[in-house]
Predict the 3D structure of the following.
Amino acid sequence: PDADDVAWLRRQGLAPLAAWTLSKQRALSRLQPEVEEGLRQVSRAAVVADLRQDRDCVALLRAFEGAGVASVLLKGAVLAPTVYPEPWCRTRCDIDVWVDPADYPRVVEVLASLGYVEAQSEKRSVALALRFGGETQLRGTRSGQGLVEPHFQAFQGEWCRHTTAVDHAGIWGRRRPFARGGATGATMATEDLLLHVCVHFGVNHQFTVSGLRSVLDVHLLAKEGDLDWDAVARRAREWRIATVTWTALSLAVTFFDAPVPAATLEALRPGRVRRALIRFLRLEEGIVATRPGGYNWRRGLLWLVMTDRLSSVARFVGRAVVPETEWLRIRHDAPSAPLLSLLLRHWGSLLRHRHS
């Protein structure tokens, strides 16, 4: 390996894990000096970042517990200390936590006591997130603090809102205890966490951002011994996320030989036309090449291909062009503006995204 390989591993989010693996195999010192030093620098930076993340996560869990705020940790905050050999082997940049929208004033108060302040943009207003199940951001003001992102649904985004039937109440009811640094919180049941990781990777990140790390997340969760694969397949079908789940699991099998039962893949497998469209997107090639995401034709096509039902495709496209009146009024902070004016502003925003 050379410096370009290290840079590629960084883009994939796998450099810390590669450094740990090579060190365990006593192979790190046999690399070219500049490559060895590059990976050692990655390791040191990852350990420091993990210590800060751990400190902030423990403080958050303790503060929530003291204030009586129920929460569910999501994504990297759970995956790093549970399925990776060392928490610092799994890169992450913020703390994602699912909370009840009704608890949000207390969440802000608790996080303010820890040094966090709201950092919202026009496109991510608190009112819109609270009403339609999005997320907000609170940025740390103290040394080393990063972002905390409260989520108001486990599966979020306009695609999930219009095309799926996710049982959020069921996921919340199945949450299980999660302990870290003497603090106690909760995380999803393993089956729900696997489905969440698949959808977040495939839909929210279009199979792009830190692609191989996300595929590895799926693989490592698939290796969990207590995983109920029948429940995974059943919930994926019932929640209308079978196609994206099948795609993410198939990628994990392709790249890491993940132990996904053939019966599960068969139960989730989309039809021939949809599989042909997935092949057309050349996801494996895009992951290896670290192809960026963004608002472009590939993103739109991928969202449509990942939608399980044709009726949901029509609903999603229709709402993308003509959103609900309430959504428009909150999005543009214009409670009394004429509907046509709001639609024109929305269509202009769509055109700007198309050309960005």
In short: The chain has a mean pLDDT of 94.
